[in-house]
Design the sequence.
């Protein structure tokens, strides 16, 4: 049998894709797993694409698909990955009928409307990624009932209201990424009894206020704590040094006051300490040389001893100020790396 050349194989593959995305009904009725990710598919998804009874997994990541998500779903589906497209409209409420769903990834689209509370009916959900859309409204408190949830990514939307206190009971949660929204109110972690596996907490770029709760120091698995660019007040908890696994601490661009807790010096895993643009004062605890520190915008804060007030030891120098935006950008990238490390969501796990 003569083997196909690369060009012939490519043409055959493109023809197969065209057939699958034609308007012919029932073309996917016997398919269990459909992976057409990272191609150049365009147009709208066929209305029956997600509905065949045999369909268990679909991955159309990174194409150019437009229009709404079809509202008819196979009851056999455990993985839906439609991220990185141009999909619009709202998330269908009927998705709550897919009770065996494990992974729902719709990030990087133009989806609008609210997050349907019906998602809470999918009790087996492990991963929800709705980030980088145009979703708005409150986050349903019912999502706090998803006891198997490991990662919840809602960053870069237009979500508002308070962060549901029910999230404090997600005992398997490792990643909670709510950055770049408009959440208000106080941090909902004053009573933490279940979040012992949480390793990434991203709340950067919201409108959260009040003090940082003392109970934050009970999250001993945290490697990233990003509370930057909010409206937090008061002093940093003195017990924050108990977070011995913490690698990135970002409290920048808030209204924090008082001294930097001396316990910060005992955080042996710390690599990034970002405290810029607050009202901190006193002496900055001595930290290992490998820790990157940015405390610009705190005129009362001194690095080193009281007698060491030279311009290069004073945080808030002009050179540091010019680097502030760069530091913030790097912190975001670092946060993403940590989040993926913690969750361990490699694609091969999508089929489990």
Sequence:
């Amino acid at each position: 049998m003569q083997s196909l050349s690369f060009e012939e194989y490519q043409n055959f593959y493109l023809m197969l894709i065209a057939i699958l995305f034609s308007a012919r009904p029932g073309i996917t009725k016997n398919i269990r797993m459909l992976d057409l990710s990272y191609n150049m598919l365009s147009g709208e998804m066929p209305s029956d694409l997600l509905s065949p009874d045999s369909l268990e997994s679909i991955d159309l990541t990174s194409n150019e698909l437009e229009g709404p998500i079809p509202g008819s779903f196979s009851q056999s589906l455990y993985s839906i990955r439609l991220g990185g497209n141009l999909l619009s409209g709202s998330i269908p409420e009927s998705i709550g009928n897919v009770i065996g769903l494990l992974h729902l990834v719709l990030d990087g689209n133009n989806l609008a409307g609210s997050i349907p509370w019906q998602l809470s009916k999918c009790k087996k959900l492990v991963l929800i990624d709705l980030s980088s859309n145009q979703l708005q409204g409150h986050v349903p408190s019912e999502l706090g009932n998803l006891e198997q949830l490991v990662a919840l990514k809602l960053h870069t939307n237009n979500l508002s209201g308070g962060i549901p206190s029910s999230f404090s009971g997600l005992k398997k949660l490792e990643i909670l990424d709510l950055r770049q929204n408009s959440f208000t109110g106080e941090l909902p972690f004053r009573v933490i009894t279940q979040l012992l596996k949480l390793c990434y907490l991203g709340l950067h770029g919201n409108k959260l206020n009040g003090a940082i709760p003392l109970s934050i120091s009970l999250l001993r698995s945290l490697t990233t704590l990003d509370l930057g660019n909010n409206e937090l007040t008061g002093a940093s908890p003195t017990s924050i040094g108990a977070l011995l696994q913490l690698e990135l601490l970002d409290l920048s661009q808030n209204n924090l006051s008082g001294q930097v807790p001396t316990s910060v010096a005992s955080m042996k895993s710390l690599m990034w300490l970002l405290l810029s643009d607050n009202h901190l004062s006193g002496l900055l605890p001595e930290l290992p040389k490998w820790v990157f520190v940015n405390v610009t915008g705190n005129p009362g804060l001194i690095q080193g001893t009281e007698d060491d007030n030279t311009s290069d030891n004073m945080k808030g120098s002009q050179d540091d100020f010019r680097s502030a935006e760069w530091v913030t950008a790097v912190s975001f990238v670092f946060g993403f790396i940590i989040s993926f490390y913690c969750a361990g969501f490699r694609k091969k796990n999508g089929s489990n």
User: Anything to note?
Assistant: Helices lie at 6-20, 318-343. The two ends are 35 Å apart (CA to CA).
